[in-house]
Specification:
This protein has 477 residues and is an alpha+beta fold. Helix content is 23%, strand content 26%. The chain contains ten helices and 23 strands. A hairpin with a 5-residue loop joins strand 12 and strand 13. The longest helix is centred in the N-terminal third of the chain and has 22 residues.
Length: 477
């Protein structure tokens, strides 16, 4: 029976309820083209390239997935009104909505209908597989320092994973790329061989399999030498660290980021405050409010939860409150970091202070991981001394040196670790440009920075400066 055209209500002149709901979700008409479907189907079956390519495992990125831009804008607006829950463990950190299958909003209902119906049928035809009507669908929101580390998405019965991006204009430097990993003969991930940039109204789908390893790039991948993000290399570093409780990781930051930060540290923009009193310490400490943007980003990297996870992987320590215990529940609080000052003048990047006598278990139960740190400038005449007011506790010390190429040990400026009430030196950490020094110390281990006796800038030939810098952090289990 032919349908009748709906008219305005004669009494009010308004359109009926169904018409007020807005436009329907419609996928790009090009996807219905038989030639396009055949090309994609043939490429998928043969695992060969079609448009953007299929390596390292079958995947596809569809631009302009939905026909109407105004519908996509409406969908984004509805999704942003949802409640998001913080999701965080050793693998990921981001915010996620509840399941969208029961939502009643118009645009969300429409996209759900398209995914469950037309798009699922289209996928079945292209992939030549029978897909069940069961579809898991939710909305994830990634913010600065959020991350989803390497995983394969394999769950019982899952055949295809997909992502619909609703992002503003995006560039590679913004992070968040979908990185695809190659695998070895044992089906283990090796390295990132392809990165897909998020794009407004684009949909990415890929075949879920034992080799479909991927990740959402975070601040780590933008800053840290990719060698230290390789799980196999992390295992080697961890083994060495566990044997000696210390390690130096050369070339830690990527070269471009290193150049930016090193140049900014030598600028006049940063305000350096002298730290005292002289019977305990004498050096320059950066005013955190005066940091150039790239230096601030480096600070945020070293105090981010994703960096806590990286350090846990490199050392075997449980530095993140969700690392090392699979039975612990996920954090749903989504607390923001705050800054406080401890007795040594360090900036504390955490939502809560850590008491020196608190047990490891209690610390993990209290919430976000804890670290304290400073950005320091070291010049002729600077030093720190041993003194009784220093907190004695278990901690992982981190030093990231910059601007010290050509530095010689006789100039001083090195960190010396000694046993409490003893003169014996346990370890010496020398300044080395772009080297990350990690030292795990117990309550009976103290440290000091040797007095610097170097008044000539000629000693640092490559830097043309008489100062070097370090990011200094202490991380607590």
């Amino acid at each position: 029976m032919p349908a009748k055209k709906r008219q305005n209500d004669p009494a009010t002149g308004k359109k009926n309820k169904k018409e007020k709901r807005g436009e329907l979700a419609v996928i790009n008409s090009d996807l219905r083209d038989e030639a396009v479907q055949k090309g994609m189907r043939d490429a998928w079956q043969s695992k060969e390239s079609y448009t953007n390519g299929m390596l390292p495992f079958p995947h596809c990125q569809i631009t302009h997935f939905l026909q109407s831009e105004s519908f996509v804008e409406g969908l984004q607006a509805e999704l942003l009104q949802l409640n998001f829950n913080s999701k965080s463990n050793d693998l990921y950190k981001f915010q996620q909505s509840d399941d969208l299958r029961e939502r009643k909003e118009h645009h969300i209902s429409q996209i759900r209908s398209v995914v469950f119906g037309e798009f699922r049928v289209w996928l079945s035809e292209v992939l030549q597989v029978d897909l069940e009507a069961t579809v898991d669908i939710s909305c994830a929101k990634y913010e600065h320092t959020d991350v989803l580390l390497c995983h394969d998405d394999e769950l019982e019965g899952r055949r295809v994973a997909f992502i619909l991006y609703l992002v503003p204009p995006w560039e590679v430097n913004d992070g968040g790329t979908l990185d695809l990993f190659s695998t070895n003969e044992h089906c283990q991930p090796v390295s990132v061989v392809k990165s897909l940039l998020p794009c407004w109204n684009s949909l990415v789908f890929f075949e879920v399999s034992p080799v479909s390893f991927h990740q959402v790039e975070s601040l780590l991948f933008e800053w840290v030498n990719e060698m230290y993000l390789d799980p196999r290399y992390q295992a080697r570093v961890q083994q060495e660290f566990e044997e000696s409780s210390e390690i130096c990781l050369p070339s830690f930051l990527q070269e471009e980021k290193l150049r930016q930060v090193r140049s900014a540290l030598q600028s006049s923009e940063i305000q350096w405050e002298r730290k005292g009193p002289p019977n305990k310490r004498c050096y320059g400490c950066a005013n955190m409010q005066s940091l150039p943007s790239c230096v601030q980003e480096c600070w945020e990297l070293l105090s981010s939860e994703s960096f806590f996870i990286l350090l846990s992987n490199l050392t075997g320590l449980c530095l993140h409150y969700l690392c090392g215990d699979e039975d612990e529940s996920e954090n749903e609080d989504g607390k923001n970091e705050t800054e406080n000052r401890d007795g040594e003048g360090n900036t504390q990047a955490s939502a809560s202070n850590t008491d020196a006598d608190t047990s490891t278990t209690e610390k993990k139960d209290k919430g976000p991981p804890t670290c304290v740190g400073e950005l320091r400038r070291w010049m002729h005449g600077d030093y720190t001394l041993l003194h009784d007011s220093v907190k004695r506790e278990y901690a992982l010390d981190l030093q990231l040196h910059m601007g010290c190429a050509g530095w010689k040990s006789e100039f001083g400026g090195f960190t010396s670790y000694i046993a409490h009430d003893e003169d014996e030196e346990l370890l010496t950490v020398y300044p080395e440009d772009n080297s990350l020094a990690l030292v795990y110390r117990d309550k009976d281990t103290l440290k000091f920075i040797k007095h610097i006796n170097n008044s000539s800038s000629s000693h640092l030939s490559s830097q043309n400066t008489s100062a070097f810098y370090d990011f200094s952090f202490n991380y607590y289990e």
